[in-house]
Design a protein that fits this description.
The complex is a heterotrimer of chains A (about 270), B (about 270) and C (about 260).
Chain A lengths: L17 E13 L2 E12 L3 E5 L6 H8 L7 E6 L2 E2 L5 H8 L2 E4 L11 H6 L8 H6 L4 H13 L15 H14 L4 E5 L7 H18 L3 E4 L3 H7 L2 E6 L2 E6 L6 H8 L7
Chain B lengths: L21 H24 L4 H18 L6 H35 L7 H16 L2 H12 L3 H25 L3 H9 L4 H35 L7 H10 L3 H28 L2
Helix pairs in contact in B: 3-4, 3-6, 3-8, 3-9, 3-10, 4-6, 5-6, 6-8, 7-8, 8-9, 8-10, 9-10
Chain C lengths: L18 H20 L4 H18 L7 H32 L7 H15 L3 H12 L3 H25 L3 H9 L4 H32 L10 H10 L3 H29 L1
Classes of the chains: A alpha/beta (about 270), B mainly alpha (about 270), C mainly alpha (about 260).
Chain lengths: ~270, ~270, ~260
């Protein structure tokens, strides 16, 4: 019996192994003013990890270092048995294919259709020529349709991306990330531009899909309530270092004070 | 004994997608094809002697060599006067164009003039004005009025009518209908509606258009002298005919300076007044 | 005296005068009068001029298409010049425009590229055509080279501006998928600039077509030469035939432009 198009990929890692290991990661945009100081983390092969912390504390830099959109100053990033920090050129691009990313401002290709946006997730796998001509394989197209259904955007396949609302765009961008069949999903403030209700919908969608795919998720988020609700593990950052690392239940006001400073905002 | 073939079960049809519909794809392909064909045919049939093409860099280098250093003495003797004349040609031409373009612009604006025949007529005038190059207009006016700066001014004027008239008409069409409606209900005469209703709305755009055209006209006026319509073109032509390359470069240099000064001037005017 | 009387002094409405505007208009009017006298324009000359103008129009009508072979040959050459100049201009403008984009290239590179672009735009195409005629001889080559220069000055400048305005976020997203460089360009850069680029090309094609009908006046090929010869021979009815042909071709090209823009968004 032919397999209907599903989204399950064979599991390649033993469930208890670590998916991502960050060792002594540091980043200085300006010499002498480090944004990340000696961060070391281990991320399990499944589960939702939320990183919280005030703006400017390096959350975005940390996440972008993982897929090397930002180059770390020093440190190692072990993923899929490779040190991402030392890769370049083709190897780096090949490694990136296995890391899906969802952005705060969706970063969709505005003038292209929803379908093209989702298919762009496969750009790491198709040749330049076929990308130019938009000649994607039938499997890719079918998978794209299936993903659009999963994120609830199947009716919008031919609409231009700039015609969508914020929530709709984020759904498409999740579909794009999943199109890569990634081994990990990164999300940089995915809900900061969305209203409260849509934020919850998007987080539910992401966590649900990740569970279906058996992949871990790392989310930057500044809404602590949402973080506690959806995450299995919370990492609190302040001034470029990790100051809290534990379960949501263990996150107390004292911890929040050390992360964010100030008392007035705490209820 | 024959084996029954295994039933493969339901075959799920793969959904398809393509960026362009069949119609669009054929149209685009056709267009590409025609474009490439046009380019290839043009290349094959154009009369370009390959030796000249290969020789070109050397010739150009030689010419540039002869142009340096520029003959500075040519400036006070000839260029200064001619430059001023060019500026006058451009300005006079633009002013004359304004006078003629305003009524035509009013005629072509569909919200102001509701008569389709008049609209069409005005549009025809504007298109003709734009399609004929200012140099060709200059040829015409030199034939009518004789050589000299007046022919040049009229050439500039007639060429600019199309530009100013079209953009002025568009500005009129984009003006808010509210104030016009209000004036109509008071029973105001047509002229008052124009001056009180439309004009105040389009004034900044109008002068912006005029300024833009004046800038272009300065450059165009400079070459009209090549056909005898006055201005710096005459000085350039003389120098070219006699192969005084250093004078030619002096003329070109002066043109550059004037254009640069005008650019700065125009930018300042735009910032402060418009 | 109090102002309790029922008839108060009527308030006068004085419209605020925009002194700057009034002053400017007066200056313009004065200038107009000055230049008209400078050019020795008086009523007598104007009347003579209008008379001669009428006479002239009479001689241009009806348009004489007898020498249509010459006309077609000239127009074809002009069209060829326009097509080749636009094609070569576009091809050359792509790298020059890229090099001039300040968000992609280091400063010194953009300076050189921008200086080149400004140089190309400094002079009227006819002047550039004359220089090329003197350099490479009469004929279509000079005209084509002149219009290539004009095209680069326009397209490369606008192309650079379009590149400078692109959103880097889209490029970031495509890079994150592991796409190779040219795929990033194909999906992340080109869709953002293509719409405007098609607009520039169609504008420049139109402009080149108009200019190509004219560069012949200085010997750079095309219908301009035929036109100039007709003027010199006082064949004004042939002149009007040529003008009609030019207008017709330009209008046709505008129609094609509209089609191209619709097809390529």
């Amino acid at each position: 019996m032919t397999q209907p198009a599903t989204l399950q990929e064979p599991i390649t890692q033993a469930p208890s192994s670590k998916a991502l290991v960050i060792q002594n990661l540091s980043k200085e945009y300006v010499p002498g003013k480090p944004v990340l100081t000696d961060i070391s983390l281990e991320i399990e092969a499944k589960g939702i990890t939320a990183i919280i912390g005030p703006s400017g504390t390096g959350k975005s830099t940390l996440i972008r270092c993982i897929n090397r959109l930002v180059d770390p100053t020093s440190g190692n990033i072990i993923f899929n048995n490779q040190n991402l920090a030392s890769l370049s050129g083709r190897q780096l691009r090949n490694a990136r294919r296995h890391i899906g990313m969802v952005f705060q401002e969706y970063n969709l290709l505005e003038r292209l259709s929803v379908m093209e946006n989702v298919l762009s997730g496969r750009l790491g796998y198709v040749s330049v020529w076929r990308a130019w001509l938009r000649k994607f394989s039938a499997e890719d197209v079918d998978k794209a349709f299936a993903l659009l259904e999963q994120v609830g955007m199947a009716d919008f396949a031919n609409q231009r991306a700039d015609a969508l609302s914020g929530g709709q765009r984020q759904r498409v961008s999740i579909a794009r990330a999943l199109m890569q069949s990634p081994d990990i999903l990164l999300a940089d403030e995915p809900t900061s531009s969305l209203d409260p209700k849509t934020s919850v919908e998007i987080l539910e969608l992401m966590t649900e899909q990740a569970k279906l795919q058996h992949i871990p998720v790392i989310i930057n988020i500044h809404d602590v309530t949402l973080a506690k609700r959806f995450a299995d593990r919370i990492i609190g950052m302040s001034s470029g270092s990790v100051v809290f690392d534990g379960k949501p239940e263990d996150l107390q006001n004292d911890h929040l004070k050390s992360i964010y400073g100030g008392e007035d905002w705490l209820s | 004994m024959s084996q029954p073939t295994l039933d493969k079960g339901t075959f799920m049809e793969k959904r398809t997608w393509s960026r362009f519909s069949k119609f669009e794809r054929t149209a685009r392909f056709l267009f590409y094809f025609v474009t490439v064909a046009a380019i290839v045919v043009s290349l094959q049939t154009i009369e370009i002697i390959p030796e000249f093409l290969i020789d070109a860099p050397e010739q150009i280098g030689d010419m540039l060599n002869r142009m340096w250093p520029p003959d500075v003495s040519y400036y006070p003797s000839t260029i200064h006067e001619a430059m001023l004349e060019t500026i006058h040609i451009a300005t006079l031409g633009t002013l004359l164009a304004i006078i003629m373009a305003i009524p035509i612009g009013v005629m072509v604006a569909e919200n102001v003039t509701q008569n389709k025949a008049l609209n069409w007529f005005a549009r025809l005038l504007l298109v003709s004005s734009r399609s004929i190059n200012s140099l060709v207009w200059a040829l015409l006016f030199v034939a009518i009025l004789g050589p000299g700066p007046l022919a040049g001014a009229f050439a500039i004027a007639f060429r600019s009518i199309g530009f100013i008239g079209k953009l002025f008409g568009e500005a009129l069409e984009e003006s808010a209908p509210g104030p016009i409606e209000a004036l109509r209900t008071t029973g105001a005469p047509w002229f008052s509606i124009m001056t009180m209703g439309y004009w105040p709305q389009v004034v900044p755009t109008f002068w912006s258009i005029v300024l833009f055209r004046w800038d272009i006209n300065l450059r165009e006026s400079a070459v009209l002298g090549l056909v005898g319509a006055g201005g710096i073109g005459v000085a350039l032509n003389t120098a070219l005919e006699l192969f005084y390359w250093d004078r030619v470069s002096m003329v070109l240099l002066s043109m550059l300076v004037v254009v640069a000064v005008v650019e700065v001037l125009v930018t300042q005017i735009r910032k402060r007044i418009i | 005296m109090t102002t309790n009387s029922p008839i108060a002094t009527p308030r006068k409405y004085v419209r605020k005068r925009n002194w700057l505007a009034t002053f400017s208009y007066l200056v313009l009017a004065a200038y107009l009068i000055y230049v008209l006298s400078l050019f020795d324009v008086n009523l007598e000359r104007l009347i003579i001029g209008i008379g001669r103008g009428g006479d002239f129009i009479g001689r241009m009508m009806p348009p004489n298409f007898e020498r249509y072979a010459l006309l077609i040959e000239g127009m074809l050459e002009s069209i060829q010049i326009a097509i080749i100049a636009t094609t070569a201009g576009v091809l050359l403008s792509l790298p020059v425009g890229f090099l001039a984009a300040r968000n992609l290239m280091p400063t010194w590179v953009t300076w050189i590229a921008r200086a080149l672009i400004v140089g190309c735009r400094s002079f009227h195409p006819v002047i550039v055509a004359i220089l090329f005629v003197k350099a490479v001889g009469f004929g279509a080559l000079a005209g084509t080279l002149a219009l290539i220069v004009a095209s680069i000055g326009f397209i490369a400048k606008l192309f650079a501006e379009a590149i400078e305005e692109i959103s880097l976020k889209q490029i970031e997203a495509v890079r994150a998928t592991g796409a190779p460089f040219f795929s990033v360009i194909a999906f992340g850069v080109l869709p953002q600039v293509m719409g405007r680029f098609i607009g520039f090309i169609s504008y420049q094609l139109d402009s080149n077509l108009r200019n190509s009908t004219m560069v012949g006046l200085v010997g750079a090929g095309g219908i301009g030469g035929t036109l100039f010869a007709a003027f010199q021979r006082f064949d004004y009815d042939f002149v009007s035939a040529i003008l009609i042909a030019i207008i017709a071709v330009i209008m046709f090209a505008e129609g094609i432009n509209n089609v191209m823009r619709k097809l390529y968004r």
